[in-house]
Specification:
Helices cover about 40% and strands about 15% of the residues. With about 425 residues, the protein is an alpha/beta fold. The structure holds nicotinamide-adenine-dinucleotide.
């Protein structure tokens, strides 16, 4: 059996490798020719995906990549893993999904299965995607071809085996669901069938909104408890000893990544269309988006305690990726912190062992080309303050404590290091 996976990024590539590992021949499709040639040469462009494995599967003839959509004529199924970002006005941008749908439609064959994996609002698969597939192919979903939605549950940097993460699937018809189950059962151990595509889309949004709301809660409690001279980190550590009904979430400098800061807006937008409000979701967004300003106020206070000001100070932001131990800097709150510091007149630098140089992105073109400063005493000691935004395990925090005159820690990572009083400020 051969399947095609479209969009070979953080979601599509691991999924492709998982199918290939299980003996399914995978054709990877991407519009980025550089990614395609890297993969065919057995190279990886995502740090936590080893090149060795790609090379092995390419050599075994189980995996190959192409930019040519005509090749999907010969596959049993097409899985779509392209981005679903927001437009400037924070409304869903389905352009990637719909353009991919149009490209598939030109080559769609009777009996094929099309599955959308990209996170999106309920209704996208059965309405928007179905429309472009049917219009471009002249075929009918549920009659001539199968259509389904199955959200990805990737946790980059954490060692879950993809095969062991249960996979939700909703079909456009019961036959579509059965066709999708048949394909996914080749690679994934536990499948979770649901009533239809929109239920599967809604389940993914619940998972991500749940994270956003709970992170907002602890971000709020951080300030509330600090005012009562209570350490929120100790509170969470204590609360999580409860063996039922509690799950720990941790405060931070704001939300990051391609999911949690974006997906709630997909839900909020769709809710408005059906006359519903999403007050909880919006409140969480408000609280989380206010975090960077609060962190900067804390940096100002910490500097003031040493008779310094943000304006004119050299400040190092430590950790640029949005979460620990990955190289993904999309939507990272570190950028917001850097922008705010710069706006207040600081000289801003960053260090991140996983992001040696900042690539050009739509959101932060002004930082493109900036390089991570070297990790050595002379450099680090030259900053008035180090602001820990992301706590990568590859950073030596004991050294940091030795080298830096002032550390503002948003991740509580300095709790593990003995430091002179007054040097570390929690934020
Ligand atoms: N990254 C995560 O942890 C994660 C987790 C769960 C779900 N998701 C969702 O999965 C989807 C993909 O996210 P990602 O992080 O893999 O994005 P990504 O940017 O890493 O990868 C997307 C890939 O799609 C390619 N692409 C764009 N348009 C294309 C087109 N028209 N045809 C072919 N290829 C095209 C890009 O070149 C890129 O390689 C999003 O909807 C996201 O919300 C992401």
């Amino acid at each position: 059996m051969t399947i095609a996976i479209i969009g070979l990024g953080y979601v599509g590539l691991p999924l492709a490798l998982q199918f290939a590992r299980r003996g399914v021949r995978v054709l990877g499709l991407d519009v980025d020719a550089k990614k395609v040639s890297a993969l065919n040469a057995g190279r990886s462009y995502i740090q936590h995906i080893p090149a060795g494995e790609i090379k092995k599967l390419v050599r075994a003839g189980k995996f190959s990549a192409t930019t040519d959509f005509a090749e999907i004529k010969n596959v049993a199924a097409v899985l779509i893993c392209v981005p679903t970002p927001l437009k400037r006005n924070r409304t869903p941008d389905l352009a990637f999904v719909l353009n991919t749908g149009k490209s598939i439609a030109r080559h769609l064959q009777r009996g094929q299965l099309v599955v959308l994996e990209s996170t999106t609002y309920p209704g996208t698969t059965e309405n928007e995607l179905r429309a472009v597939l049917e219009k471009g192919s002249g075929l009918k979903a549920g009659q001539d071809f199968h259509l389904a939605f199955s959200p990805e549950r990737e946790d980059p940097g954490n060692p879950h085996r993809l095969a062991d993460i249960p996979k939700i699937i909703g079909g456009y018809t019961p036959a579509c669901l059965a066709a999708a189950q048949k394909i996914y059962s080749r690679a994934i151990r536990a499948l979770v069938p649901v009533a239809n595509c929109r239920t599967a889309e809604a389940a993914k949004l619940l998972e991500n909104v749940f994270r956003g709301v709970n992170i907002a809660l602890v971000n709020e409690l951080k300030g509330v408890y600090a005012a009562m001279d209570i350490d929120v980190w100790e509170v969470i550590a204590a609360a999580k000893t409860k063996p039922f009904g509690f799950m720990p979430f941790y405060p931070g400098p704001g939300l990051g990544g391609h999911c949690i800061p974006i997906d709630p807006f997909y839900l909020a937008w769709r809710a408005k269309q059906v006359g519903q409000e999403t007050r909880f979701v919006e409140l969480a967004g408000e609280i989380n988006r206010a975090m960077p300003e609060k962190i900067i106020a804390r940096v100002a206070k910490a500097l003031a305690a040493q008779n310094k000001k943000i304006s004119g100070a050299k400040i190092l932001v430590l950790g640029l990726a949005y979460k620990a131990n990955v190289d993904d800097d999309r939507e990272s709150p570190s950028y917001v912190l850097m922008d705010l510091l710069k706006a207040r007149g600081a000289n801003v630098f960053y260090h991140d062992p996983h992001v040696p140089v900042i690539k050009r992105t739509r959101e932060h073109p002004h930082w493109a080309g900036t390089k991570s400063v070297p990790w050595r005493r002379k450099t680090v000691a030259g900053f008035a303050a180090v602001l820990i935004s992301t706590a990568h395990a590859a950073v030596d925090y004991r050294r940091l404590a030795e080298w830096s005159p002032l550390i503002v820690d948003t991740r509580n990572v300095m709790a593990q290091v003995k430091v002179a009083p007054g040097k570390v400020w929690r934020a």
